[in-house]
């Protein structure tokens, strides 16, 4: 992709994130709609600060615009519950964002020598990085808006076409034993996708499609949530603490029919659609019930690269393995993205969701979360 095309893509990513704030009032931009999520205004400020940090402070050695807001928009320096009250008024935030984004786009467009010759600008690395950073926060903001809709749900929605449970369908592709390439390529890949690896896999069978709403409902109706033998020790402890009985965004109407809640409020669930809103613990319990297991992320990636997987990109798909560094891993361009999560307490997800931007929907992209997180747009696919 040319530099001009990347600049257009960056502006689109900026506009999408900014537009989510333009429809809010000042109180809404400050609200923390989920314990794991920052206020929406903070996400926009953080994305803009990050852009200024790399382009102005790191590349051009100019911290005039980043120093005053560093404490607020650097994740480790202000706790999530404190971020909302420290945000500027919404109008002031939007004006600052517009000014900084315009300044940075002009900087990238004119490309002075100091910028053009900096190592981070080689092969447009920094442009790819910023586009993906905005894209990740855009999806997280949509997750926050979904949590707002769940808070505001009155239970008055009426399902007109209920869906029913259906037994899991074992429709698989058999992968032959072999040596397969996995991992990303510079300059697009994040540090945790590099260097590319050779994975020895197979044989294994992987489902063509992810688990559907109707299949997951069958697990629920078979008392999957209360059957101890299906759950790991950690999963059962999590389940007894939170007492979930359905995906995070599912609710029942007065007739007992299930409906979903998204960014725009309540909607009818389609039984054939891909289930999402479940944790790694729930995904693992479902896999045990269905007679399969979650795939190792390399099993998923290889099958995806060979175009054997259907309905990818509709929900992030939990993988069996913890998030770990590839052999030869080097943190880049900073230590704070991947390294802190190589702790055996985060698990990998692959594929993307309906809310993921194209910039991060690639076979090698590695999302990662702690196993109890269910506010994310995550489901599962089985291997046997």
Describe this structure in words.
With 384 residues, this protein is an alpha+beta fold. Helix content is 39%, strand content 12%. It has 2 domains: 3-152; 172-379, paralog of FGE (formylglycine-generating enzyme), CATH 3.90.1580. The strands form 4 sheets. Strands 10-9-8-11 form a 4-stranded mixed beta sheet. A 3-stranded antiparallel beta sheet has the order 5-6-7. Strands 1-4 form a two-stranded antiparallel sheet. β5 and β6 form a beta hairpin. α1 (3-22) runs antiparallel to α3 (40-59) and α1 packs antiparallel against α6 (90-110).
Q: Nutshell version of this structure?
A:
This protein is α+β, with helices and mostly antiparallel strands and 384 residues long. The chain has 12 helices and 11 strands.
Distance between the termini: 39 Å
The top level CATH class name of the largest domain: Alpha Beta
| Shape call | globular
Question: Which range best describes the helical content: under 10%, 10-25%, 25-40%, 40-55%, 55-70% or over 70%?
Answer: 25-40%
Query: Total helix count?
Result: 12
What fold name stands as the CATH topology of the largest domain?
paralog of FGE (formylglycine-generating enzyme)
The CATH homologous superfamily of the largest domain corresponds to paralog of FGE (formylglycine-generating enzyme)
Largest sheet: 4 strands, mixed
Number of domains: 2
Q: What share of the residues does DSSP label as strand, in percent?
A: 5-15%
What structural class results from the helix and strand content?
Answer: alpha+beta
CATH architect. name of the largest domain: Alpha-Beta Complex
Taking strands numbered 1, 2, ... along the chain, how are they ordered across the largest sheet?
10-9-8-11
What does the radius of gyration come to?
Answer: 22 Å
Task: Write down how many β-strands occur, each being a DSSP E stretch of 2 or more residues.
Answer: 11
Mean pLDDT: 97
Low-confidence stretches: none
Q: Secondary-structure element order, as H and E?
A: HHHHHHHHEEEEHHEEEHHEEEE
């Amino acid at each position: 992709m040319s530099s001009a095309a990347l600049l257009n893509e960056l502006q689109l990513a900026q506009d999408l994130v900014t537009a989510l704030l333009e429809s809010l009032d000042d109180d809404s931009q400050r609200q923390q709609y989920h314990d794991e999520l920052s206020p929406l205004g903070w996400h926009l400020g953080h994305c803009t600060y990050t852009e200024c940090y790399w382009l102005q402070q790191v590349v051009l050695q100019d911290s005039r615009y980043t120093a005053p807001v560093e404490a607020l928009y650097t994740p480790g320096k202000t706790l999530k519950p404190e971020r909302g009250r420290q945000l500027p008024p919404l109008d002031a935030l939007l004006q600052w964002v517009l000014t900084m984004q315009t300044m940075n786009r002009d900087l990238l467009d004119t490309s002075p020598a100091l910028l053009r010759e900096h190592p981070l600008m080689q092969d447009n690395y920094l442009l790819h990085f910023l586009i993906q950073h905005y894209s990740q926060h855009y999806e997280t903001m949509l997750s926050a808006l979904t949590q707002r809709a769940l808070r505001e749900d009155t239970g008055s929605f009426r399902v007109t076409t209920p869906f029913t449970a259906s037994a899991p369908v074992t429709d698989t592709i058999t992968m032959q034993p072999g040596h397969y390439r996995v991992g990303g390529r510079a300059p697009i890949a994040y540090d945790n996708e590099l260097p590319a690896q050779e994975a020895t896999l197979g044989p294994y069978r992987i489902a063509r499609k992810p688990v559907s709403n109707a299949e997951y409902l069958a697990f629920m109706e078979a008392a999957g949530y209360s059957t101890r033998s299906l759950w790991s020790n950690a999963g059962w402890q999590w389940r007894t603490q939170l007492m979930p009985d359905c995906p995070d965004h599912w609710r029942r109407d007065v007739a007992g029919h299930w409906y979903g809640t998204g960014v725009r409020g309540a909607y009818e669930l389609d039984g054939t659609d891909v289930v999402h809103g479940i944790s790694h613990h729930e995904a693992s319990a479902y896999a045990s019930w269905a007679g399969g297991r979650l795939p190792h992320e390399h099993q998923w990636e290889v099958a995806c690269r060979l175009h054997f997987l259907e309905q990818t990109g509709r929900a992030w798909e939990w993988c069996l393995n913890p998030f770990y560094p590839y052999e030869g891993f080097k943190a880049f361009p900073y230590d704070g993205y991947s390294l802190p999560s190589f702790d055996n307490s985060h698990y990998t997800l692959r594929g993307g969701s309906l809310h993921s931007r194209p910039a991060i929907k690639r076979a090698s992209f590695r999302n990662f979360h702690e196993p109890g997180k269910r506010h994310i747009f995550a489901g599962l696919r089985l291997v046997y």
